[in-house]
C-alpha cells in the first residue's frame, strides 16, 4: 500500500453540526493521507450513501479511502480497503472477499494480535488505544506507549497509533517509535480542521 502518515476517521458526533463531506475535505486539504468511514450506528443504506460521497471526494483528491467493518459497502463503492476489529470478519475471510489488491487493516491491542495480523497478511495494523478515549465504545484499557515500542521493535508491516492522540501528546507517541497517527476527535472535532491537520503534518515530517 501507499505509505501514509496522517489518518483521519469520521466521527459525526464531533462534527459540531458540520457536514461530513465538508469536514473530511478540510482534513484532506490539511494533509490527511487516509480517510476511514466509521459508522456503527446508521442503517446500511445511509452508510452506503456516505461511502459513495467519500469515495468521490477521496478520488478527487487522490487520497486513500477505507471503510470500517462494512465489507459489502467497501466493495460496492470500490473503496481502497477495509478496516476490521478483532471481533469483525476474520482476516482470512476478509482477504477472500476483498481480493489480493485491496488494503486490509486490523485493530490490535496486544503484541500477540499484532503478530497474528502480520502473519495473516494484513497490510497495516492499528495500535491502541494509546491513551484514554471516549470515541470508541467497549474500548480496552489504554495500552500506553509501551505497546508502540514493542510493535516498533518486532513488527515489519506499517502500524498506526490510535486512541486519545492529541496535539499535546503526539510527541510521546512519536518518541515511542510511531511514524503514523490516526485520530477521530482531535481532527474532526477541531474548530479549524485544516489548520490542525497542517500542524500534525509538520510534526510528523520532523
Ligand atoms: N480504535 P480518538 S481507539 C476507533 O484502539 C478507535 O483500536 C481504537 O478516537 C483502537 O482519536 C479508537 O477520538 C478511537 O481518541 C479513536
From TrEMBL:
**Catalysed reactions listed for this entry:** 2-(2-carboxy-4-methylthiazol-5-yl)ethyl phosphate + 4-amino-2-methyl-5-(diphosphooxymethyl)pyrimidine + 2 H(+) = thiamine phosphate + CO2 + diphosphate; 2-[(2R,5Z)-2-carboxy-4-methylthiazol-5(2H)-ylidene]ethyl phosphate + 4-amino-2-methyl-5-(diphosphooxymethyl)pyrimidine + 2 H(+) = thiamine phosphate + CO2 + diphosphate; 4-methyl-5-(2-phosphooxyethyl)-thiazole + 4-amino-2-methyl-5-(diphosphooxymethyl)pyrimidine + H(+) = thiamine phosphate + diphosphate
Part of which pathway?
Answer: Cofactor biosynthesis; thiamine diphosphate biosynthesis; thiamine phosphate from 4-amino-2-methyl-5-diphosphomethylpyrimidine and 4-methyl-5-(2-phosphoethyl)-thiazole: step 1/1
EC numbers listed for it are: 2.5.1.3
Provide the residue positions that the database annotates as binding Mg(2+).
Answer: 69, 88
Q: Which residues bind 4-amino-2-methyl-5-(diphosphooxymethyl)pyrimidine?
A: 36-40, 68, 107, 136
Keyword list (alphabetical) reads:
Magnesium, Metal-binding, Thiamine biosynthesis, Transferase
Q: What does the entry list as the binding residues for 2-[(2R,5Z)-2-carboxy-4-methylthiazol-5(2H)-ylidene]ethyl phosphate?
A: 133-135, 164, 184-185
Q: Could you confirm whether the keyword Ligase appears in this record?
A: no
Which cofactor does the UniProt annotation name? Mg(2+)
Q: Which InterPro entries match?
A: Aldolase_TIM, ThiamineP_synth_sf, ThiamineP_synth_TenI, TMP_synthase
**Matching Pfam families:** TMP-TENI (PF02581)
- GO molecular function list: thiamine-phosphate diphosphorylase activity
Relay the cofactor remark from the entry: Binds 1 Mg(2+) ion per subunit.
Its function, per the record, reads: Condenses 4-methyl-5-(beta-hydroxyethyl)thiazole monophosphate (THZ-P) and 2-methyl-4-amino-5-hydroxymethyl pyrimidine pyrophosphate (HMP-PP) to form thiamine monophosphate (TMP).
What HAMAP family would the database entry show? TMP_synthase
Specify the protein name.
Answer: Thiamine-phosphate synthase
Q: Which organism is it from?
A: Alkalihalophilus lindianensis
Gene name of this polypeptide: thiE
